[in-house]
Amino acid sequence: MTLAPETTLATTDLKLELRLEEGWFTVCELSALTPGRGVAALLPDGRQAALFTDRAGRTYAIDNRDPFSGAAVLSRGLTGTDRGRPFVASPLLKQRFDLESGQCLDDEGVQVTTYEVRAA
User: Fold this and answer.
1) Backbone angles phi, psi at 32, to 5 degrees
2) Given this model, what pLDDT does residue 12 score?
3) pLDDT of 105-119, one tens digit each?
């Protein structure tokens, strides 16, 4: 991933952390996230998380694996809102996943893992 300097958030010392079963895990610098674009992060157990930030500065983390295709691609999806709820659409089959709950907006029976996120 290459970030253009004019599109990144102001550089700070803040780190983005995810809550895992073992406790808080530092993923990256908050400034590495660009609103509207996802970033994939490798977790200690080998899974991947897809990280997003919106224009208001809210951050989200969900499982990067698309449950419909099995591919780790959700971080490459397009972001948007549906009735005020932020979502990412899978780049492969276009199913939309709520970034706050992980619920698939196109199939009630499917959900992805969400992670609690904080900047520290």
Assistant:
1) -75, -15
2) 60
3) 999 999 999 999 999
